[in-house]
Amino acid sequence: MADQSIVSALVLGLIEGLTEFLPVSSTAHVLLAGQFLGFHSPGNTFAVLIQLGAILAILLVYAHRLTSIALALPNSEKARHFVLTVLVAFLPAAVIGALAHGFIKSVLFETPMLICIMLIIGGIILLAVDKMKFQPKYHDVMDYPLSLAFKIGLFQCIAMIPGTSRSGATIVGSLLMGTDKRSAAEFSFFLAMPTMLGAFVLDLYKNRELISFDDGAVIAVGFIAAFVTAILVVRSLLDFVSSRGYAPFAYWRIVIGVVGLLGLLFWPSQDATAVAALAPAF
């Protein structure tokens, strides 16, 4: 694989890790970057495995917390309730993602213009919600009721439209339904674990006959870049949103959306199929 592909893999891995857990849509950033870089990964191998890097990053950061919850399950009603809330929130995306996988991948993810528009719309919504003066009722993710978790899960499904952002949709939904900003981001982290793992397994299964490891160096560069940067983001995001809110991410979405639209108008078009190959399942 040429040096240019290594550089492209590094850039895309950094973008995946930096944006996966931010409310800015990692899918939009990776797809648009792939559009302009002309990067193509046969069989989705690259996209699937750099996503695994981000999954492992959040599992590592939350390893102690997850272990504590797991050990408490036999004796703690609160621990069992929390696990159930995450599973209930995950259920809508699991069902819709499995049923609509083909349409999402073959239609929605091949429309860069839609991605840019959704970045802008999502940024405006996130900015408006961030400026609203709520009186939060829920401050601890361990205390979220099941009904709230299910509603957040429905909001997450909106992110199947590329450019929306999984974390952005869940955070906006959480804030509108009475959570504070810090716990909204934290619940988004926990919900990302089964959601991203489910997307990874589904993509791996759907493309099992096409998966190739011939470009091992390219995959390794993207995987490591996504893993390291995702760790840094997860470790710092909660403190950041507690003090700064979500407005910076809203403005970033709008800027990237506008730049993307301009780029699509003036940059030579790349193969849409190649771009779609970079997208996760949901």
From TrEMBL:
Pfam families cross-referenced by the UniProt entry: BacA
Swiss-Prot/TrEMBL keywords: Antibiotic resistance, Cell membrane, Cell shape, Cell wall biogenesis/degradation, Hydrolase, Membrane, Peptidoglycan synthesis, Transmembrane, Transmembrane helix
Enzyme Commission number: 3.6.1.27
Lineage: superkingdom: Bacteria
Compartments (UniProt record): Cell membrane
Catalytic activity: di-trans,octa-cis-undecaprenyl diphosphate + H2O = di-trans,octa-cis-undecaprenyl phosphate + phosphate + H(+)
GO molecular function annotations of the record: undecaprenyl-diphosphatase activity
Keyword Hydrolase: yes
Listed InterPro entries: UppP (IPR003824)
Transmembrane segments: 43-62, 82-104, 110-129, 184-205, 217-238, 250-267
Class of enzymatic activity (EC top level): hydrolase
Principal subcellular localisation of the protein: membrane
Membrane topology, record value: Multi-pass membrane protein
Note, other: Bacitracin is thought to be involved in the inhibition of peptidoglycan synthesis by sequestering undecaprenyl diphosphate, thereby reducing the pool of lipid carrier available.
Known function: Catalyzes the dephosphorylation of undecaprenyl diphosphate (UPP). Confers resistance to bacitracin.
Similarity remark: Belongs to the UppP family.
The protein, known as: Undecaprenyl-diphosphatase
